[in-house]
């Protein structure tokens, strides 16, 4: 049975410095039952029909693992929780993992769920394009988190100096979008979940990350070396259950939409649900075989240097362990990839 443990890391905050968290904490997470994985995810969005289907159908049990799911607000909670051994595996953007590894954290990329980048820049009605962002205030989460880094990458590609845009921490995805609607900020970096609502709210979709920076990845499955040593089979089971859930959702659109609607507590026919599902289904965002977006992670490592986040590009290959994903896909059978990044 899958158990949702929502409060397990509430006390873990961004005040945990990466270097300290990487070395601190006890070994409790690694010494638990090897068939149990504590899995950290960000707050579910309109993509939850894909990302939560493994839990919904309890596919994990088929692969011999119990999954305890912890919902986290953002990278500001997720990476400290991982490094402090409060969770075993997280679904997160590789950018923060690269920075943590540079500070000594023993992390590995072991798979992915949705490597296609679903972010966009939303702007008030008086902002017509990315070029209009200069001088604007833009909502992000943490300075090195996905919303900030993808926004800066999109600015660079659009010939906008990132230093000319004021970045402000405005909370989670929905909070950032609502900050644009309410006029607290002029623009926001947030998922494509809000495209259906934007026109009604007088908000412009300035650009999609997929179109502007197609090499920028979204999610990877990230864990610690000690977890792989103590719970390797359970990590394989987690990956297998997640991949099976994604495949099931892609082949059963009505069930996937219903799960997303239930998760977000909206009507099943809400345009946000149907349009987001169509975007992911048709747009090549999914890791149908749990593929690790290695080329795209290397792009991020180089981007961090360009943005001044890192002084040197962090070597990516030593951080990749594809063996657990390969075992998982061996159980399921491989299917054709539809990730748009594989064709580049």
TrEMBL record:
Residues 51-256 form the SsuA/THI5-like domain. Coiled coil: none annotated. Residues 1-22 form the signal peptide. Keywords: Signal. It comes from the Bacteria. SUPFAM superfamilies: Periplasmic binding protein-like II (SSF53850). This is ABC transporter substrate-binding protein. The lineage of its organism: Bacteria, Bacillati, Actinomycetota, Actinomycetes, Streptosporangiales.
């Amino acid at each position: 049975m899958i158990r949702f443990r929502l409060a397990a890391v509430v006390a873990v905050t961004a005040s945990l410095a990466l270097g300290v968290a990487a070395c601190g904490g006890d070994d409790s997470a690694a010494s638990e039952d090897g068939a149990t994985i504590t899995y950290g995810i960000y707050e579910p969005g309109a993509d939850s029909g894909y990302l939560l289907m493994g839990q919904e159908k309890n596919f994990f049990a088929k692969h011999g693992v119990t999954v305890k799911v912890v919902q986290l607000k953002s990278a500001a909670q997720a990476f400290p929780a991982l490094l402090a051994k409060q969770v075993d595996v997280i679904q997160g953007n590789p950018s923060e993992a690269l920075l943590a590894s540079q500070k000594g954290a023993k992390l590995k990329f072991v798979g992915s769920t949705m490597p296609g980048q679903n972010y966009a820049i939303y702007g008030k009605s008086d902002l017509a394009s990315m070029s209009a962002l200069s001088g604007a205030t833009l909502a992000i989460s943490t300075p090195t988190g996905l919303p900030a880094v993808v926004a800066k990458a999109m600015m660079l590609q659009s010939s906008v100096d990132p230093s000319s845009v004021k970045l402000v921490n405005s909370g989670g995805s929905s909070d950032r979008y609502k900050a644009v609607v309410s006029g607290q900020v002029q623009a926001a970096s947030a998922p494509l979940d809000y495209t259906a609502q934007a026109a009604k709210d007088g908000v412009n979709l300035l650009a999609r990350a997929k179109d502007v920076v197609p090499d920028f990845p979204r999610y990877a499955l990230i864990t610690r070396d000690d977890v792989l040593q103590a719970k390797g089979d359970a990590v394989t089971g987690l990956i297998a259950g997640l991949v099976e859930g994604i495949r099931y959702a892609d082949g059963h659109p009505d069930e996937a939409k219903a799960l997303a609607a239930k998760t977000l507590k909206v009507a099943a026919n809400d345009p946000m649900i149907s349009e987001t599902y169509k975007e992911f289904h048709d747009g090549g965002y999914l890791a149908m075989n749990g593929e690790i977006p290695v080329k795209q992670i290397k792009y991020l490592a180089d981007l961090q240097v360009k943005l001044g986040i890192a002084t040197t590009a962090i070597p990516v290959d030593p951080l990749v362990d594809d063996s657990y994903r390969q075992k998982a896909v061996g159980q399921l059978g491989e299917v054709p990839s539809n990730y748009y990044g594989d064709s580049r």
